[in-house]
Write a structure and sequence with these properties.
Strand content: under 5%
CATH class of the largest domain: Mainly Alpha
Shape: elongated
Order of helices and strands: HHHHHHHH
Number of helices: 8
Distance between the termini: 51 Å
CATH topology of the largest domain: Rna Polymerase Sigma Factor, Chain: A
Number of domains: 2
Oligomer: single chain
Amino acid sequence: MDFAQLSPQALVHVCAMSTDPSAWDQFIKTFTPVVSATARRVLAGSGMFTSEIHQDRIQDVFLKVWDNDREVCKQMDGGAESFPFGYLQKVTRNLVRDFIRSECAKKRGSGYVPAGLDELQAATPGGSMGSPEDIESQVMRAERTAILEKEGFSQIQIKIFWRYYGESGDSAKDIAEEPGSELTVKGVESLLHRMSQALRKYYDP
């Protein structure tokens, strides 16, 4: 069978039922782009991105999909055509977030660990502090905003940062194409890179 000709959902179904090396090679080829992009985004936002760490987290995701008799792969099976991609994004975010928490705990030597930027949420409506996770996210957002201000970034630039890494999840293209924007896509990406590097100096001196 030519596994490259299968749709992503059909490929997931084959891999959920089989350990065929050729099928799994194609699975990795098909889903590496979404896993890689998601891992890169979370790591960059935390200030912990390196090529080595990035590649290790990608491997972690595919090991997770394979582990326990392919349990994660079986959970991906049977949904809509786009479901495997969204599900793998969620798995990737959670695994990378766990890694960031573990590393920060080691460096800080305490139980307080920041959430990944992709997980940060705005304050809950009506002034409620929300769950412990909401409170942690609000504290980390305030902390990182203060760091960026200290590093000399403007309020407009910080707003762009949170549009990309925060609750709205806008892409660099979305931000650059907004009416009145003075930045190109490359300009937005460059700004986000500089801001992530500024945070990295704080979290990984």
